[in-house]
Design a protein that fits this description.
Length: about 250
């Protein structure tokens, strides 16, 4: 009888926010075209570790399963990425799965991304409009601007760039690459441009653009290929111009 092929997962687990992390290993049946999410679902169906002992199912987050929502971000074999697009056949075994360390752990692989969402609120990463009446069609954006702005709009707030950035940690209030890039996106919008100076002023405060150390880890790790460092470079120029305007009283 042919031996059944299996895969091994080493999962860094944590029972709660204040609990100590520990590693638990699992051995599950192999199926072609498995991704890390399907492997975790197999553990959920039969929560036994590699030693055959019953255990609690591993907790994680996922939604779209097609690298759009950003919910399933985790560290896989030492690299922050999306679990839905991480194919088992392309991963070195045993597959090491851990929560992203930049954010507080809620349980197992579930993290609290509030730091990133607070940063987006801080820079007003939205288009402010009055929806109480029909405003009619909005202003058109030049095609040359729309093309690069669309690339920035692909951000799914997955947090991978913040995890990869060495300047985003519990000793720093740096808002991180994704919120910076969103400032460039919304400042480029004909309506969002009304709040351009306010956003740039925010970037010149503590935790703003000066926190970037230009490691370029963010642009290498972004699952959507967003030109994050290009945005940061452009914002460096914009904030410098804004600073000179303030000095000159313009």
């Amino acid at each position: 009888m042919a031996e059944t092929k299996t895969i091994r997962l080493q999962v860094t687990r944590q029972d709660g926010p204040d609990s100590k992390p520990y590693t638990e290993e699992f051995e599950i049946p192999y199926r072609p075209n498995m991704n890390v999410i399907s492997a975790l679902m197999e553990i959920q169906r039969n929560p036994k570790n590699a030693g055959g002992s019953k255990t609690t199912p591993v907790c994680w987050e996922s939604n779209c399963l097609e690298e759009v929502c950003g919910a399933c971000s985790m560290v896989i074999n030492g690299k922050p990425r999306q679990a839905c697009s991480a194919l088992i056949d392309k991963l070195e075994q045993p597959v090491r799965v851990a929560p992203m360390s930049t954010f507080p752990v809620v349980r197992d692989l579930v993290i609290d991304r509030q730091r990133m969402f607070n940063a987006l609120k801080r820079v007003k990463a939205w288009i402010p409009i009055d929806g109480t009446y029909d405003l009619g069609p909005g202003p058109r954006m030049a095609e040359s601007k729309r093309q690069w702005a669309y690339e920035l709009s692909k951000c799914m707030t997955c947090g991978v760039c913040l995890e990869a950035c060495p300047n985003v940690n519990d000793r720093s209030d740096f808002i991180g690459p994704a919120p910076l890039s969103q400032v460039r996106l919304f400042n480029a919008h004909p309506t969002g441009e009304m709040n351009k100076e306010e956003r740039l002023d925010t970037l010149m405060e503590s935790g703003g653009i000066e926190g970037c150390g230009n490691s370029q880890n963010c642009v290498r790790s972004c699952p959507k290929g967003i030109p994050l460092t290009t945005s940061i470079a452009a914002l460096n120029g914009d904030t410098t111009k804004q600073l000179f305007k303030k000095w000159l009283g313009m």
